[in-house]
Amino acid sequence: MCGIVGYVGSAEAAPILLEGLRRLEYRGYDSAGVATLEEGIVSVRKEVGRIDDLRKAIAINPIGGSTGISHTRWATHGKVTRENAHPHFDRSGKLALVHNGVIENYASLRAQLEEEGHQFHSQTDTEVLAHLVGRAFDRCSERTPGALVSALREALGQVAGTYGIAIVHADLPGVLIGARRGSPLVLGIGKGEHFLASDVSAIVGYTRDVVYLNDYEIAVLSDEGFTLSTVQGNGADYSVTKVDMTEEDVGKGDYPHYMLKEIHEQVRSVTDAMRGRLSHEEATAKLGGLNMSNAELRTIERIVLSGCGTAFHAAMVGEYLIESLAQIPTECEYASEFRYRNLPMTKDTLVFVLSQSGETADTLAALRESKRKGHRTLGICNNVASTIARESDGGVYMHAGPEIGVAATKSFTSQVTILTLIALLLGRIRNLSSSAGTRIITELEALPAQIEKVLQLEPEIAKIAKRYAHSKVMLFMGRQFNYPVAMEGALKLKEISYIAAMGYPSAELKHGVIALVNPETPSVVIAPHDAVFHKNLSNIEEVKARGGPVIAIGTEGKGKELSLVCDDVILIPDAPEILTPILTSIVLQIFAYHIAVELGCDVDKPRNLAKSVTVE
Ligand code: AGP
Fold it and tell me: Do residues 515 and 543 make contact, with C-beta atoms less than 8 angstroms apart?
């Protein structure tokens, strides 16, 4: 998704804006630009490609000034060209604007403006918005921040769609304006300087005191302070949040890629997902954030889990977990489908939405659709101040720390861990015995050490990965709790290596998938020594009988049968069936990572992808 950084203070703006964009690189983008205001002139530099290209352009042709805005663009309207890169200007060339979101009615607005003689230099919806605001401001006799805010209100009242925007104007030195509806925008509070950003990672090096704008809010910032109001013209209260992220969190440390760092953070992130939430005394999980009493939870007769991408795959594991431990009918729905389906849900249906970023447009829409129908809707999010976290009726925070790599890794295992806690809690207020609860808690507490052992398999997994790195197609299979892991392993591989990877329930092999089996197409079969192990073994033999290479993930000490049949075997520590997805998924994260590295792919910023899909 697009990234926005704004600055107003006493320092040179350009270096701060560029550094902020660099920290937003993980969001995915295809072009970038900066505009700064100095001595009544707004100067702009834009480049297609990487932020380093933009940095070089500015080094050759510097832009000064201590007020400015910047942007990384992830193209929605218009091709990837310098003309379409942000910032965009109004007709006067004095107003510069950057935007994250989609103006749905931009075409009709553009036609109306063109009839009035406005000329456009790009194909973007953003340039139309800049002209709308500039036109309204140019009709004002005053040249004050208040007049620009009034003009902005008038313009925003005409647009349909979503926006997170930042604006500077040549007639208003030392003024930075921001507004949001649907696309996140955070205000950073410094000493003699203030910031705007799409997310805190862009500014955490300068301040950890932030205000998260709500939808329909407008902020006016100067070096000395800021004011908040609403698009409707009312005042807006706000609270200052101390961000618990540090610069070290946002850095790569000694790792070559954020993805590898985050894979190796999973001992801590899974531990943190459970921290303070396990009660030995009551042999259950304690999740106060659900904001529901046990009596209320007992009335729940059905659960819907919804999310996108990796979050959806975690939801798939959650379906097995909750039905297994709590015997509550549970289904998972792609958020992008849920929001348009008219899913029959009775009043005792509880909805969970899962989202690492807490800003995914489809998941946010699913949340709002569920609440619109009167259902209690809980969030499982990593970003505590995200829109989904704030609009949920409660939920469980992942506490996984920032996940910068576009490919989700620790967020998956954190979400699955939390879903295990939810299943344990729901089971223990229904039919799950105290001894069963104690056993599950003991097994959960053993998990971090088992994750550590899986991480130590990295060299072995890397060697196997390199052997298959040049495959064009790869099949992933698993059963029961590990069927979702087959889906997730396939997604991991496809999104960072661009190999056509597909995930299936193992038994689907006979229903068409086997047509794809050939000596050049490896199959990855997740076959821990569980209740369906021998069923998986049969599937492996079916693949081998047709000459297909097989990489199996089995259980330490119980891998002999696999070694006799498979081309490669990776053995995870022995763990209860319900917890194997956390271990097997880490193997597949490492596997995908090393294939992508072997292929020379951009692991942290894969082509066409964004970390948080805040547009439909
Ligand atoms: C997975 O590796 C991708 N990054 C993507 O599928 C992601 O899981 C999806 O966009 C959902 O993101 P969210 O958890 O932030 O809502």
Answer: no
